[in-house]
Amino acid sequence: MPQSIPSYSGIPMPSLRRLPGYHHFLKQLTELKEEYVSATTIAQELKLIPIQVRKDLAYTGIIGKPKVGYPVKELIIAIEEFLDWNNTKKAFLVGVGDLGRAIIKYQGFHKLGVEIIAAFDSSPEIIGSTIGGIKILHVDKLTTLAKRINVKIGIITVPEDAAQSIADKMIVGGIKGLWNFAPVKLKIPRDIVVQSVNLAASLSVLCKQLSDVIKK
Prior knowledge:
Number of domains: 2
Largest sheet: 7 strands, mixed
Helix content: 40-55%
CATH architecture of the largest domain: 3-Layer(aba) Sandwich
Distance between the termini: 35 Å
Number of helices: 8
Radius of gyration: 20 Å
Strand content: 15-25%
Order of helices and strands: EEHEHHEHEHEEEHEHEEH
């Protein structure tokens, strides 16, 4: 029997992952002063099929008009509300190496409703410094501060051997969503949401696909 596709709030995970791509394209259309867009146009731009685009957008509650399409501005708002980008969520980051620093300095998270308010590390050379306006604290303060400030998102950018212990500290502190960049599968309770980003696996797929293209 084929494995069922994971869903989030009734929407299949593949559809959920496509919504930010739609949003990005729609923002480009607003710069061009476009008022309406069809599912066919979106599909052509993102190399999808129109019926899939219509199904994905239907989860936001908005309905397109026959022969006209979707009102661009209203569709942008519908996607943002569905993805809960309008409600800013506080986040902690642990692991202030090169990747952690890059994430801290990235300004685009505010548009996605996420604000990194503190970062943690165990290195004496880093603790007490400020990066991107964020002060670096000792990791031992993580759990207490998470409880006090009611932080719900934890970003893990530590080495593989430290990821599980950091995840445990975050969960004890009341953090419910983990964005994990360590190449390890975390053992977490069922009521915790985790999204893992395996950079090595992603790069391997890219290299393989590139090799196939070059051989053709």
